[in-house]
Amino acid sequence: MSPCALMAQQVPTPAPGTPSPGTGEAPPPGETPPKKLQFRGADGKPLPPEIQKLLEEQFKNGVPASGTVLTLPAAKDGQAPTPPADTANPDPGGTAPGEPGGPNKPQFRSIDGKPLPPEILRQLEAQFKDGPPGEKGSAPRGAARASNGDVVVSSSRPRGSVVGNIPPERSFSQVDLRAFGADNIGALLEAISSQTSSNRGRGGGGPVTLLNGKRVSDFSEIARIPSEAIERMEIFPEELALKYGYRADQKVVNIVTFQRFRSKIGQLAFVTPGEGARESGVANGDLLAINGDTRMSLGATYNRAAALLESERDVRQFAGVPELARFRTLLPESEQFGLNGVISGPLLQDVAATLNGRFDLNQSDGLLGLGLTGPIRRTTDRTFGHLGTTINGRVGRWQWTVTSNYDHIDNKVLTDAIDGSGRRDLSLSTDRLANADFLFSGPVFSLPGGPLTASVRLGADFRDFTSRATFGATDVRADLSRDRGAAQIDIDLPILNRAENESSPLGNLSLNANAAVERLSDAGTLRTYGYGLSWSPVPAINIVASATQEEGAPTLEQLGGPLLVTPNSRTFDFLRREVVDIARVSGGNALLRTDDRETVRFGLNVHPLAKTDLSLSFDYVSTRIENPIAPFPILTAQIEAAFPERFARDAQARLVGIDGRPVNFAEANRDQIRWGINFTRPLGEVPAILRDARVRVFNSEADVRRAFPNAVLAQADSSSALGRGAANLTSRLFLSLYHNWYLEDSIRLRNGVPTLDLLTGGAVDFLGGRRQHEIEFQAGAFKKGFGARFTATWRSGTEIRGFGRPDGVLRFNDYAVVNLNLFANLGERYGKSSAPGWLKGMRATLGVTNLFNTRPQARDETGATPLSYQPAYLDPLGRTLTFNLRKVF
Questions:
Q1: Which of 503, 585, 642, 666 has the smallest C-beta neighbourhood within 10 Å, fewest atoms?
Q2: What's the number of CA atoms in the CB half-sphere (13 Å) around residue 744?
Q3: What is the pLDDT of residues 90-108, one digit of tens each?
């Protein structure tokens, strides 16, 4: 919380006979009534009793001079700020004016009222020996004066706070974020993905991202903001997403940037696998300027990666045709170029707007094996354009946001015909999407437990999807469109609040209800509703429980994606226990139906130690889905029996083709527990004067002066106790551990067929059933410019039963992947403020992905590995080395 400003002025003396505001009794006629200061909050509400008592005691002997401003230290959540020592009335036994240490001598102290370290104090006294800094008698900015002369205590929430009162699960300061060694917001979210992942909803998506507590039009608007520009980052539970017009199936990450920041960044990276081949290079350039509500950024990226052939990984081929490996790519050659720009600033008073544009070009080129006259080549081109706008404003206590986007995507795929005719089969698609959302949120009316708040969202989408596929004389075309109108409302009802109901033993308690309706032109009306509660019996414990009923429609790509035939698609036939090259069809399925999903969640977050950054979390989620939409599964006996029309076999029962378009299953059920531990602390002892300090790290003194033009700079000797304490303050040790435990995961493919238990041998995925346990561990340390981050992910084994015969089993081993990232801020490490200019702001990073080169292993009951389950197919790259050089100008 930001510091609170306290301004005191004398209340006009009441007339004789007027009741005293403190006692309600009138003084006797002719007697001067006692002077009594009245204290209240800036909103007119009474102050907490402990603050009231302290202020009355502090000013019992007289009122402070007009315009006196006191600074209260930041309060922790759920606690009231504590006034500092009496700065309005100096010690009565102190020195007189003009004497050493008297009022004419500038007095310096920290913002929390504590004495400054002697070495800093001496520098400031020497610098201002002829007089205090600034205009004499000037009051700090933001100090408010009450027109009626009352003492006003004003306190605001931290800049960039989210709406509502849901507490964050995790908070990161700039010092915390530096320890990850991540370049920008996109890299930071990847580094903390274990903490932002959600086990609710449809999966596959990242968290909802906010900038300074407000919605953004698209993640690309903020993805390239450098980590140095971030003041703090907070992770919130899924329930907060409802307040911003999203579904409650994604966690929310709020990123707050500094009010002033400017940078120019250049970056080069080289990536190579430990086994050779598939080298790739990346070049990035970014400009960013932030000044209050004005922001401008421009970024460009280019990367290129070589192809990886099966022959470069010694992949076994069919007997007698080993040369095929030279004509099949595990990974295609690829090239990508992108541009991204953002401009943001105020339009009117309390109204700000952002415009974001993005353009990407992607091309890939791969080999699919041999045709009748030569190799079969596939070329893919993708062009993506995006334009997004966001307008934020305020009407009284209500905030409103309008977001709109327009996306245009062109895909083109050319594939050589297998018959050697020289023909190239064509698959084209064009996707155009325009949408607009209006969000209005704020308090409706006040209740004993606090204000009842509501969030209302209205939205509309207009989408057009066209596709064309030609295969010889066959020409298949599709033209689909979808218009969507949507409305959503979320209501929070506070029951109890520690600040409002101090005598309540239940702490904070609030209820939530939400409902949404969507009207789709091609799928009818979809409804969603949910309810839940949030309870914090004590500040260290937060409990969330919720239930949601949701209907979901298939996407236009799932309904009408262009047909694409892939020849020589290497496939394992579980019935015959053999590997065959087949023709696999992909694309859209116009017969898909909407699904119906029920989700129940219970979540617990605990911060057991008041002065230690230690957090524990526990989540239980139960999901039931009717008509789930899924990619077409692998070929097993159960799946072929359920979908016989999707498979083609020749006269010898050999598999020759699969229709792999998406399908509806009948039902799916999943129960899951996820728990985690997070711990962060400085490396070394931090002096008491610095423990509560808010820290911002700069690359140079010039950066400091740009951010704070009128700042008084004082520097401690790095060899002094304060200097060593500051080094410890900006250091970090962090640990994170998460465990996913699946209690149930089952699917019924179609009505009337047995249910597949994915935990005990059932499978719909090429890599087997559900791995029941997944553990993610991360540890890192940073100090004096050096940093290291270690991550490890372990997954338990799984299996596919009925592998060609009733007692056949294909087992997948449990395995772990370990990654190591080492980095050095060269200017900070070598020379610091005296480092040469080219070294300041430079970071060198060495990363090793899959340190021990582990890959999934699959073996049948005899110990043999089927041809299509070779480790190189499951993980083509294995261990990779990355060298990254980044310079902030």
A1: 503
A2: 12
A3: 443 444 444 444 445 556 6
Q: Is 276 exposed, middle or buried (0-12, 13-18, 19+ CB in 10 A)?
A: exposed
Pair type for strands 755-757 and 732-748: antiparallel
| Comparison of pLDDT for 864 and 23, the residue scoring more | 864
Q: What is this structure's pTM?
A: 0.78
Contact 566, 578 (CB under 8 A): no
- Given a contact cutoff of 8 angstroms between Cβ atoms, the answer to whether 466 and 476 are in contact is no
Distance of CA 230 to the CA centre of its chain: 13
Give how far Cα 597 sits from Cα of 185, 241, 251, 530, Å: 32, 18, 18, 12
- Angle (CA) 404-410-411 rounded to 5° is 135
Tell me which of 708 and 582 has the higher pLDDT: 582
**Angle at the Cα of 758 from the Cα atoms of 754 and 759, rounded to 5 degrees:** 120
Instruction: Quote the pLDDT of residue 50.
Output: 53
Residue among 377, 564, 381, 384 nearest 467 (CA): 564
Instruction: Check residues 181 and 249 and name the one with the higher pLDDT.
Output: 181
Q: What's the average model confidence in pLDDT over 675-686? A: 90
Do 67 and 137 meet the contact criterion of CB atoms below 8 Å apart? yes
Q: What is the pLDDT at residue 838?
A: 84
Tell me what pLDDT residue 191 has.
Answer: 94
Task: Report pLDDT for 199.
Answer: 76
pLDDT at 563: 84
Contact by Cβ (8 Å): 788, 822: yes
Pairing of strands 880-888, 842-849: antiparallel
Residue 719 binned pLDDT confidence (cut-offs 50, 70, 90): low
User: 449 to each of 78, 466, 494, 497, how far by Cα in Å?
Assistant: 14, 53, 5, 5
**Contact assessment for residue 63 and residue 37, using Cβ atoms and an 8 Å cutoff:** yes
pLDDT per residue as tens digits for the range 368-383: 998 888 899 999 999 9
What percent helix, strand, coil does the chain show, rounded to 5? Answer: 10, 50, 40
**Nearest residue to 777 (alpha-carbon basis) of 789, 787, 761:** 789
The three-state secondary structure class of 185 is: helix
Cα(609)–Cα(305) distance, integer angstroms: 48
The end-to-end CA distance of the chain, in Å, is 32
Residue 223 in 3-state DSSP? coil
Query: How far apart are the C-alpha atoms of 482 and 523, rounded to whole Å?
Result: 9
Q: What are the backbone angles phi and psi of residue 721, rounded to the nearest 5°?
A: -60, -40
Answer yes or no: are the C-beta atoms of 622 and 671 closer than 8 Å. yes
Sheet of 858-860, strands arranged across: 798-801, 809-812, 858-860
* pLDDT at residue 142 tops 60: no
Domains belonging to the chain, first-starting first, are: 1-156 (no CATH), 170-257 (2.170.130.10)
